[in-house]
Amino acid sequence: MVNFFTMPRSLLLRCILTLVSSLSVLGDADSAQRDGAPPSKIAIIGAGIGGTATAHFLRQHFGPEVRIDVFENGTVGGRLATVTVNHQEYETGGSIIHSLNLHMQDFVKQLGLKHRRSVAGKTAVFNGEEFILEETDWYLLDLFRLWWHYGISFIRLQMWVEEIMEKFMRIYKYQAHGYAFSSVEELLSSLGGSGFLNMTRRSLSESLLELGVSQRFIDEVIAPIMRVNYGQNISIPAFVGAVSLAGAQANLWSVEGGNKLVCLGLLKLAKANLIQAQVTTISPHTTGETSQYQLNYEGPMEKGWELYDIVVVATPLQDSVGATISFQGFEPELPAVGGSYHHTVASIVHGYLNCSYFGFPDPKVFPFASVLTTDNPELFFNSVGCVCPVNISASFRRKQAQEAGVYKVFSQQRLGKPELKTIFKSYYSVQVTDWQAYPHYGSGQGLPPVVLHDGLYYLNGIEWAGSAMEMSSVAAKNIALLAYHRWNRQLEMIDQKDLMHKIKTEL
Ligand SMILES: Cc1cc2nc3c(=O)[nH]c(=O)nc-3n(C[C@H](O)[C@H](O)[C@H](O)COP(=O)(O)OP(=O)(O)OC[C@H]3O[C@@H](n4cnc5c(N)ncnc54)[C@H](O)[C@@H]3O)c2cc1C
Ligand SMILES: *[C@@H]1O[C@H](CO)[C@@H](O)[C@H](O)[C@H]1NC(C)=O
Ligand SMILES: *[C@@H]1O[C@H](CO)[C@@H](O)[C@H](O)[C@H]1NC(C)=O
Ligand SMILES: *[C@@H]1O[C@H](CO)[C@@H](O)[C@H](O)[C@H]1NC(C)=O
Ligand SMILES: *[C@@H]1O[C@H](CO)[C@@H](O)[C@H](O)[C@H]1NC(C)=O
Ligand SMILES: *[C@@H]1O[C@H](CO)[C@@H](O)[C@H](O)[C@H]1NC(C)=O
């Protein structure tokens, strides 16, 4: 046994070089005879939660030998990002995680990260003139009030969301048993049959009306939740609507230190190489029996190309989003990915709220931490809320409306000075992030494919069913399983029907 620590430097270097060259010889032999041998190189494009979770799951399935390169053109975390105000960081993109988002829970646990303490605060709905719905201190009173106001609608809605959640959670069982799906349609229908597929095609309002939820409840409660979560109206598909409503329940959390820490942690855990570069083209590359993909990339530090056995695209492929990737030399051509992404502008404002605008001339009695809005065309913002920093100390308390605080405003367009001066009495700073946030739903768009080519996969199609951190994580686990089974020709693990029954008899 050689002891690396006591060896002279030069000898150590020679030892490592020999090791490296013998490994690469092995690697070449492997890729020449593909059957039974693991892939030697995998590329992932995008280091958001989707790409980094894919790296982690691919490492779990393919083992320690395979090289995993993750290309990132911007910042690790992607749509999970923070901005700094007064030496404190605040989430500007994806912020809220549901307690039943089991992959996110698992990542945080494995990475030794912590849930951020939640600080109580009340929510209200503003229609442009007055508050039409206010949360009180007392939960039971709220229930009675909603009951009184909207009758049976509230209970019907609750049951509907719970039933969908329960079915959706079957995915964790299927994935734990190693089952994979070759398309988003297969995945959804294995969870909720044709009912789930129909929910990606029908509008939320139509589905809720059919359920017996009142128009008034839809306008005053549902629409404001869709506006704050997806910046869109009640015409969005019922499935993403349900995802969004689940995200409006109790039991929400975020990651202490910022959600993007999960992405950084997963990259490390996966022992993946981060390459700070933009992937510009992907093309098939076949030599004899082996088919690989050539990736061309450009970065400030490096520019070049590399061959990979498996490639996962973990960023939206719509032309308007991110850094465009071109697919060249595919016969037949790869299908174009249609649709567009919805703009949502997040403005983090440090200043004094103009409580008069909300009908409270005395800021000392303004009781709300977040304000949602109805779908009123006169309103120039979707929501405004007092936000907590990503690190919360034990002594932290929310700022009162008469104090200077940090607020997050979501709007469809960038806010001009007159608009800022309407919501805020005065402000010290404004930091704007113009997100290509989530799909612009409801253009009759189908669900994009997961398998683009033999060893080429696309993660972000799942966003057209629903865009959330957990959805990207579910897609990441699915692609890792799918790539693994397809590589090893274990086709019986893909698109199996009647999984509920199969899993029961397997146990
Ligand atoms: C304002 C806002 C609020 C949200 N709120 C929530 C919420 O509360 N809860 C929730 O669960 N979800 C929320 N979401 C949605 C959630 O943030 C996203 O669904 C999720 O972060 C998507 O992750 P991803 O890894 O799939 O994509 P991304 O995070 O977009 O990652 C893709 C990465 O690929 C990189 N890239 C692109 N092209 C290239 C290229 N050619 N070469 C190299 N790299 C490239 C990009 O720079 C980017 O970092 C919100 C989103 C926004 C914008
Ligand atoms: C990604 O790459 C493009 C083209 O090189 C560049 O214009 C853009 O600013 C980059 N995006 C980020 C977030 O760095
Ligand atoms: C979904 O839609 C199809 C076609 O409209 C219909 O036949 C089917 O019954 C629907 N499924 C459910 C569960 O409603
Ligand atoms: C919702 O918004 C879309 C455009 O994004 C619009 O076509 C549609 O009419 C709106 N629906 C309602 C009910 O306001
Ligand atoms: C914030 O929290 C993270 C995660 O717990 C920790 O690593 C970091 O040091 C904290 N930062 C500050 C300024 O307290
Ligand atoms: C605050 O709101 C009031 C009432 O809408 C409005 O008159 C005033 O111009 C707003 N702005 C400031 C800076 O007070």
Automatic annotation (TrEMBL):
Coiled-coil region(s): none
Alphabetical list of InterPro entries matching this protein: FAD/NAD-bd_sf (IPR036188), Prenylcys_lyase (IPR010795), Prenylcysteine_Oxase1 (IPR017046)
GO biological process: prenylated protein catabolic process; prenylcysteine catabolic process
A GO molecular function held by the record: prenylcysteine oxidase activity
Recorded family membership: Belongs to the prenylcysteine oxidase family.
PANTHER family linked to this entry: FARNESYLCYSTEINE LYASE (PTHR15944), PRENYLCYSTEINE OXIDASE-LIKE (PTHR15944:SF2)
Name of the protein in its database record: Prenylcysteine lyase domain-containing protein
